Amino acid sequence: VGRASRARAMKVKTVSYGSPAYWEERYKKEAAADGEGFEWYPTADALVCAEASRCVSAGSKLLEIGSGSSQLAFKLQGACRSGASFLFTDISETVVATMSAKWRAESGGDASSIEFAVMDCCDLPLASASLDFVVDKGTLDAIDCTDERNTTNCLREVHRVLSRRAPGGGLYLLVSCRDPDVRRQDFGDLFSVQKILEVRANPQSGSPCPDAYFYILEKKGA
Q1: Strands annotated E in 1-106
Q2: What are the tens digits of pLDDT across the range 14-70?
Q3: What angle do CA 196, 12, 197 make, to 5 degrees?
Q4: I need a labelling partner for 12 at 20 to 30 A (CA). Which of 1, 74, 146, 147 fits?
Q5: Does residue 12 surpass a pLDDT of 50?
Q6: Which of 179, 127, 185 has the alpha carbon at shortest distance from 155?
Q7: Cα(6)–Cα(12) distance, rounded to whole angstroms?
Q8: What is the Cβ-side half-sphere exposure of residue 21, based on CA atoms within 13 angstroms?
Q9: What are 93-101's contacts with CB under 8 Å, separation 24+?
Q10: What does the pLDDT read at residue 109?
Q11: Rounded distance, CA 145 to CA 122, Å?
Q12: Distance between CA atoms of residues 17 and 48, nearest Å
């Protein structure tokens, strides 16, 4: 990922991406416009879905933090084997209601394996070691725009709710524009890096998102 892309990534900090109020207002405007939501790092979706389809099996439990209005939620459910359960969360009540209604409309009302819920990823109301996989596409980047302690809190919460009991479980699938040298410091003694893939932005798409990285991380410890 080149200097130009990193420079573009730095500019996002001029917007209040770390503020819950910013996201609530943004999603209210999206809902009023009745349009498709903005897709962060759109070229990462195929990589995330491919990894999830490889790892997620019947009985697996997958959480996405900061799922927003992204289509990744529906793509993940479609890519993974039947029998898995999915929990898509966001801090915005508006977008959770919007995406839940969209899912009910598209699935014919079947909500047996998928749930949308309002949650703060820095303080998850979930039991420890209760999930097999956590997906994060740009949420940690947004949290980076606040106090750095929130970045640590988010990572600790992801670590806490992940379980390594199931074969292949305990994975944190993270898409972030931050350089690996920086992110490795953030991961500390919480996660080991299995693989890092570059996510190239598509300039033809018109998306302002910079190049990014797809981190496949494994929970350290029990």
Answers
A1: 61-64, 85-90
A2: 678 888 899 999 999 988 887 677 899 999 999 999 999 999 999 999 999 999 999
A3: 10
A4: 74
A5: no
A6: 185
A7: 10
A8: 2
A9: 93/24, 93/118, 94/24, 94/27, 94/28, 94/31, 95/23, 95/27, 95/30, 95/31, 95/37, 95/68, 95/69, 98/27, 98/30, 98/31, 98/69, 99/67, 99/69, 99/73
A10: 59
A11: 14
A12: 22
Give the Cα-Cα-Cα angle 108, 47, 101 (nearest 5 degrees): 20
Q: Cα Rg for the chain, rounded, in angstroms? A: 16
Look at the block and give the residue holding tokens 């079947």: 110
- Model-wide pTM > 0.85: yes
Residue pair 214/175 in contact by the 8 Å Cβ criterion: yes
Q: Which residue has the tokens 């498709």?
A: 36
Domain boundaries 3-219, corresponding CATH code: 3.40.50.150
**Residue-range domain boundaries for the chain:** 3-219
d(CA 175, CA 103): 24
pLDDT value of position 5: 47
Query: How far is 95 from 23, CA to CA, in rounded Å?
Result: 9
Helix or strand or coil: residue 217? Answer: strand
**pLDDT tens figures, 157-188:** 999 999 998 888 999 999 999 999 999 999 99
Local structure of 100: helix, strand or coil = helix
Phi and psi at residue 182, to the nearest 5°:
-75, -45
